[in-house]
Structures are given as structure tokens and as C-alpha cells.
Amino acid sequence: MDNGDGDQRLPHHKEPKEFVSLDQLAELGVLSWRLDADNPETDPELKKIREERGYTYMDICDICPEKLPNYEEKIKSFFEEHLHTDEEIRFCAAGSGYFDVRDRNDAWIRVWVKKGGMIILPAGMYHRFTLDESNYIKAFRFFVGEPVWTPYNRPHDHLPAREQYIKTFVEKDAANQAVDAAA
Fold it and tell me: Considering the entire predicted model, what is its pTM?
């Protein structure tokens, strides 16, 4: 994505546009699915994901000016670059929004999550969130056990979750190379 300072709710494509595949996101630890947003209670794939990953707690967030108290303040806080010590799991039941994540070179990648999209960001990954121009998202939040949603604004590189993320997803390719070269 571009590094423009304009409205955070716009797509912010580079010119020419560059797209990142779901496989490239997975290499960074970002997982995603397309699920049944109209029938989440009976979606067998969502049930399977919850069971396999141990998500025992769920709540629903409606994010829009009419439903979220202190809306402008909250949207600004969501857009501050931060990490969590646990996975961030969101399933979009309606509306849409952007998760911005960092690639291995610390550049932003903008991930557009729309109705039916489920995304999991690994613990320790720097990211931020904003709505898109629709200004609305209804998202299911999942947690392992009791909900913990503590953002640690950048920099928090000393946290064990961040150190583990770096080892698992950022340094893994460098460690697997048989030949190194330098200019």
C-alpha cells in the first residue's frame, strides 16, 4: 500500500497496483477463510476452525458511528500500530474494513476483509485496523478462554510474543538459505 497521509478509509493502492496472494500472507502468519456469513451458527467450517484452534469465547462488535460509543476515538486507537500477545481473530458477518500488516521488510500490506471473510493475525505481529468507506463492520471476535484484547503500541519488540513472531515468520527464510551473499 502507499504511505499516503490521506483518509485512512481509502484503499491506498500503490501505482501501479500491487497485490499480495493469500499464500504470501500465510508466510507472514496471516490465515484467512471464506465462510458463511449468513449462517455462522451452523457453518461447519467455522465450527471446525473454532474446535481445532481452541476458540471457546466469542462476542460480536458492531463498529459504526451509530453503535460504537466514542467512535472517533476508538477508530483512531484501532489505527495505531500495535501488537497483541495472543492471536487476533475476526470474522466479518457484515460490512468491511482493512487490516494493515507489516511484511518482512516492514512495509505495509493492506488486507481488505469483507462479509464472509475470517482473518487470524498471529501473536506478536504489528498491525492496525480501520473501516473502509462503508464505515461499518459487524465482526465476530474469537478468543482462547477469557477475552484479552490488550494492544501494545509500537515499539514493543522486547515482548516474548514479538520475539517468537520474528523467529517464526521473519527470520525463518534467512535461516533456511544454504548460501548467503553480500555486496
Answer: 0.90
